[in-house]
Amino acid sequence: MKFPPIKEQMDLLSRGVEKLVTPEELEQKLVRSEKSEQPLKVKLGADPSRPDLHIGHAVVLRKLRQFQDLGHHAILIIGDFTAAIGDPTGRNKTRPHISLQDAQEYGESYVEQATLVLNANDLEVVHNSTWLSGMTFREVIELSAQYTVAQMLERDDFSKRYKNGVPISIHEFLYPLAQAQDSVALNVDVELGGTDQLFNLLVGRELQRQAGQEPQIILTMPLLEGTDGKEKMSKSMDNYVGLTEAPDQMYGKILSIPDELIVKYFLHATDVSPQHISQIEAEMKDGANPRDFKRELARSLVSLYYDENAAVEAEIAFDKLFIKKQIPDDMPVYELAADRSDRTIVDVLTAANILDSRSAVRRMIKQNAVSVNDEKVGDEHFQFESGAEYNVKVGKRKFIKVICTI
Predict the structure, then answer these.
(1) Does 87 share its domain with 146?
(2) Contact residues for 374 (Cβ-Cβ < 8 A; gap 6+)
(3) CA angle 142-178-191, nearest 5°?
(4) H or E stretch at 192
(5) Backbone angles phi, psi at 165, to 5 degrees
(6) CATH no. for residue 15?
(7) What would you report as the CA-atom Rg of the chain, rounded to the nearest whole angstrom?
(8) CB contact at 8 A, 81 and 265
(9) 73 and 212 share a domain?
(10) How confident is the model over 313-353, as pLDDT tens digits?
(11) Taking a C-beta distance cutoff of 8 angstroms, is the pair 397, 252 a contact?
């Protein structure tokens, strides 16, 4: 198999990487791969504890795609077994378990969404329950004997919890060993992960070494802050940009990020060249308006997950909605029958599933974030009258047309 030149591979694979353990070893593996015409086996493990992926997840998926594009063999490990254990990484308390069945169902969704980034035709998908669930208790003890408690407490979140008297369950020590066993079971050359996974990936190197295998190369990618610019992108924090969100929603969310994240998003979430990103960074330092680059970023991301036409249409829709202050043409319609007694704005927006709950509607009203026919509504007892139509706006991007029959 013909691979690109080693320097070209190294330049691409090291782009945006937070930690590379080690560059020299990676280059040696690439040289051997070229001589033997055998692709490297590159692993990315994912515990499908949540079914939805966002562009923060895509940062490391995109790195795996780069390995694919260079001709190497990508392995996506669905950690159905390890998800049921619970990854303690970055947590100050034990994470609740999910069932193996839930993990496997989430895994199906994970693969479906991950292949929006990865080449599905050149991807090996495996489940770590295949080898972990069949281990005997003796084998688990033998695995545990390969790592000490002192080594485990070198991990930052474990050491903090231990010092603060916060309980650490024994099974949490088993998680890094189980994840590391994935590398041994598959004898991989490279493992990818977020910066928060570095400890677990290093355990994989050690267990491979003890198993007589050549230790894997580690590439960690930075964690992407969410649209709030503060916390790691997460659905639970409601600061995420989903991979399967509609183009106009994706475009609008990107325009809401803080200016200081523009370059980081370009670097880790798009295919824009490093040269152009450096130019953008320099122009912003010289006083150029960040808004223009943010719009370019939003177009780039929508084009990546849809196409250029969708990006143009999303920008037009955004400008129509927020700059020209027009009502969108494709608003959902909610018909309110004349004999309905639940006619208040709280009743209707809850029944129409515009927000999750009545309390959420009340909260938006208190925040002055609900308008009816372009007028703010501050009264949660506002009622829709029979024989009329209303354009209702909730927050910045949610609209609904309420039609009240006579």
Answers:
(1) yes
(2) 391, 393
(3) 125
(4) strand 190-194
(5) 70, 20
(6) 3.40.50.620
(7) 25
(8) no
(9) yes
(10) 999 888 877 765 666 667 788 887 777 777 788 888 888 88
(11) yes
| Closest by CA position to 253, among listed 223, 209, 294 | 294
235 within domain boundaries: no
pTM for the model stands at: 0.77
Q: Return the bridge partners of 46, or none.
A: 78
- Cβ contacts of 234-241, under 8 Å, gap ≥ 24: 234/56, 235/50, 235/52, 235/54, 240/54, 240/55, 240/56, 241/54, 241/55, 241/301
Q: Report CA-CA distances (Å) from 397 to 84, 354, 394.
A: 37, 11, 7
254 C-beta neighbours (distance < 10 Å), count = 26
Q: How far apart are CA 261 and CA 294, in angstroms?
A: 9
Q: Is the pLDDT of residue 310 over 80?
A: yes
- In 3-state terms, what secondary structure has residue 241? coil
Which amino acid type is present at position 393? K
Same domain, 66 and 175: yes
* In a shared domain, residues 163 and 41: yes
Each residue's pLDDT tens digit, 112-146 = 999 999 999 999 999 999 999 999 999 999 999 99
- Asked if the structure places residue 231 within a domain, the reply is no
Q: Are residues 308 and 368 part of one domain?
A: no
Q: In terms of C-beta density within 10 A (0-12 exposed, 13-18 middle, 19 or more buried), how is residue 283 classed?
A: middle
Strand 190-194 relative to strand 217-221: parallel, antiparallel, unpaired?
parallel
Q: How far apart are CA 166 and CA 98, in angstroms?
A: 22
Same domain? 22 vs 121: yes
Ordered alpha helix ranges (H), 226-307: 247-254, 262-269, 274-285, 290-305
